[in-house]
Design brief:
- InterPro entries: CBS_dom, CBS_dom_sf, cNMP-bd_dom_sf, Diverse_CBS-Domain, DUF294_put_nucleoTrafse_sb-bd, GlnD_Uridyltrans_N.
- Residues 139-196, 203-259 form the CBS domain.
- It comes from Deinococcus cavernae.
- With 585 residues, the protein is of the alpha+beta class.
- It starts with 9 loop residues before the first helix and ends in a 7-residue tail after the last helix.
- The radius of gyration is 28 Å and the shape is globular.
- The chain folds into 4 domains: 10-123, Jelly Rolls (Sandwich); 136-252, CBS-domain (Roll); 256-440, Beta Polymerase, domain 2; 449-579.
- The strands form 6 sheets. The protein has a 4-stranded antiparallel sheet.
- It contains 24 helices and 20 strands.
């Protein structure tokens, strides 16, 4: 049965289809030819429709098919999404009859959309270079050598000649020393040593090294963990090159790499804050240049790491050296290396001995005040070191307590404190990690945590329409990213993955309730949500608005609405599979 929808002009059909995938990916000429092969079909509410043959696009209304619902702009049929559908309301569809569908189903764009996994459909390639796939041997620079008896004046002249900031010193027994421009400044000039001082007197021995087959991302993590900026690269014990932190970061961006170095070199609090305030705009500029939010979040996290480390160093200079070892532990999105343009402070502090608490209380408050002034707001929930300082024994006890008595508050603590990453300090917290990972072997605890993960349902309401707040906004953090983070945490605990990163967790091999294909789709969905959050915050930054994760639903394009519904359906399916394992929700 046809209605007035079939009498709408040809241009309107093209304009409608241009707003939705896969047709938004067709050129104008191809789309025009496709529209000429379409028919318009009407089905009243409750009517059945066989979508096994041909191609069907919902123009207006809603269909139910195989337990899922499809609304405006969504495509079924095509030999993939097939079966007996039912119209939930009066529904108009564009139909490609079977005799004409064959040629269109072989179109690469349409075929890819219908047959590929969700993760592939959501993929939006950017221009970013992934440091996890590049060996350091491909990006290192040649190392220049000094001799132990070379004077510091000669070393400085050689650095200037080659426009470099470090020299390697080969010693007996295959050991290397290193002297940097920072050593010349802090160990020679600041100490008033003469230019004739031999390099051997001020160099660092032994220099930390890394094999040339290591990924560049591992090298960057290694350098930040050990607070070094020049990393000699070796092959079979022989020196083959050198890397700098800025060199690695500049592979992906000029901006963030420079800011990291500036943060680490900041002479005082005011200078540190000035550099830190540049981070949101630098990150936004790189997104405008084509970088994906996933890579930018990872890069920005190194800048935030540098901000934390330098802040801790400056506060120690103010208050005096720490009386004992400690570990400053990041939590939340910065710990996962997945923050947007407006991360807040989420962290706690682990100290070696209770007697050191009088020092660390004002220490933590001073660090937090500087970070607020630098643009990192305090955590609204108060999850910060000044309120959460534990001895190592207390920390381990808390991990075990939350696992043994999983009441609502304990489970909330788990979702916060089970995503940690140590950013600074010398205290060894391996025992705390072991206590946290032991939760994966506790069936009762994992059942409670699973109930929590499946209890927060995606915001799909009646007939799978996206539900919004009264102000017609959608919170991309709570109603999107957090849902996948919870599922990734479950998988990580089951397989013993230590990383806080959602990406690393979902890629971790091992037996769990999440199938590898499902985890790949969740990864694609997570990347898409990060990009959506970045686009939102870019617009807010440009418009001078406060940065948030609340997205006005009317700002979503047609393809974005389709993709978002697909993501929520995916999360809902995963939760439906997990729920029976723990007796429902």
């Amino acid at each position: 049965m046809t209605t007035e929808a079939s009498r709408v002009g040809l241009h309107d059909h093209e304009r409608f289809l241009q707003a939705y995938p896969p047709f938004s990916g067709l050129d104008a000429r191809t789309l025009g030819a496709l529209v000429r092969d379409l028919e318009v079909l009407y089905r009243p509410s409750g009517a059945a429709l066989d979508v096994s043959g041909g191609l069907f696009i919902v123009r207006r209304g809603e269909l139910s098919l195989n337990g899922e619902e499809y609304s405006e702009g969504e495509t079924v049929g095509g030999g993939v999404r097939t079966g007996q559908a039912r119209a939930l309301v009066d529904t108009w569809l564009y139909v490609m009859p079977p005799e004409k569908a064959g040629q269109w189903l072989s179109n690469p764009t349409i075929q890819h959309f219908l047959t590929s996994a969700l993760s592939s459909r959501l993929n939006q390639p950017g221009q970013s270079l992934d440091l996890s796939s590049v060996p350091v041997g491909d990006v290192m620079r040649p190392a220049e050598l000094a001799t132990p008896d070379m004077t510091v004046q000669q070393a400085a002249a050689k650095m200037r000649e080659h426009r470099i900031s470090s020299l390697m010193v080969k010693l007996e027994g295959g050991v290397f020393g290193i002297i940097t421009d920072k050593d010349l400044r802090n160990r020679v000039l600041a100490e008033g040593l003469p230019p004739s001082t031999p390099v051997s007197q001020v160099m660092t021995v032994p220099a930390r090294t890394l094999p040339d087959e290591q990924p560049a991302l591992s090298a960057l993590n290694f350098m930040f963990r050990h607070n070094i900026r020049h990393l000699p690269i070796v092959r079979g014990g022989e020196l083959v090159g050198i890397l700098g932190t800025a060199d690695l970061l500049r592979l992906q961006t000029q901006g963030v790499g420079y800011v990291v170095q500036d943060l680490l070199d900041a002479e005082g609090v005011d200078e540190l804050m000035a550099y830190a305030r540049k981070l949101p705009e630098y990150t936004a500029n790189l997104y405008r240049a084509g970088q994906r939010a996933e890579h930018l979040s990872r890069l920005a996290s190194y800048a935030y790491d540098a901000l934390y480390r330098r802040t801790l160093q400056l506060v120690e200079q103010e208050l005096g050296p720490a009386p004992g070892p400690y570990a400053w532990v990041l939590l939340g999105s910065i710990a996962r290396r997945e923050s947007g343009l407006n991360p807040d402070q989420d962290h706690h502090l682990v100290i070696a001995d209770e007697v050191h608490r009088p020092y660390f209380q004002p220490f933590a408050r001073r660090v937090e005040d500087i970070l607020v002034a630098a643009g990192l707001p305090a955590c609204e929930g108060g999850i910060m070191a000044s309120r959460h300082t534990f001895t190592l024994d207390e920390y381990i006890a808390k991990m075990r307590e939350w696992q043994s008595v999983p009441d609502p508050q304990a489970l909330l603590n788990v979702t916060i404190f089970f995503d940690p990453r140590v950013v600074a300090g010398d205290l060894e917290v391996r025992a705390g990690k072991a206590a946290r990972l032991a939760a994966g072997q506790n069936p009762a605890f994992m059942a409670h945590l699973t109930r929590l993960a499946v209890g927060h349902r995606p915001p799909l309401g009646f007939r799978q329409r996206i539900r919004t707040a009264p102000d017609d906004t959608l919170d991309l953090k709570i109603q999107g990213l957090a849902l996948i983070i919870d599922l990734a945490r479950l998988h990580a605990l089951r397989v013993g993955e230590q990383s806080a990163s959602t990406f690393v967790r979902l890629k971790a091999p091992g037996e769990s309730l999440l199938h590898p294909d499902t985890r790949e789709d969740l990864l694609g969905a997570y990347r898409y949500l990060l990009d959506l959050r970045m686009e939102l915050q870019m617009a807010q930054l440009t418009g001078g608005q406060p940065l948030s994760t609340r997205l006005p639903i009317d700002d979503l394009s047609g393809p974005q609405q389709v993709h978002l519904r697909e993501i929520y359906k995916l999360i809902g399916r995963v939760q439906s599979v997990l729920a029976p394992q723990v007796g429902g929700v």
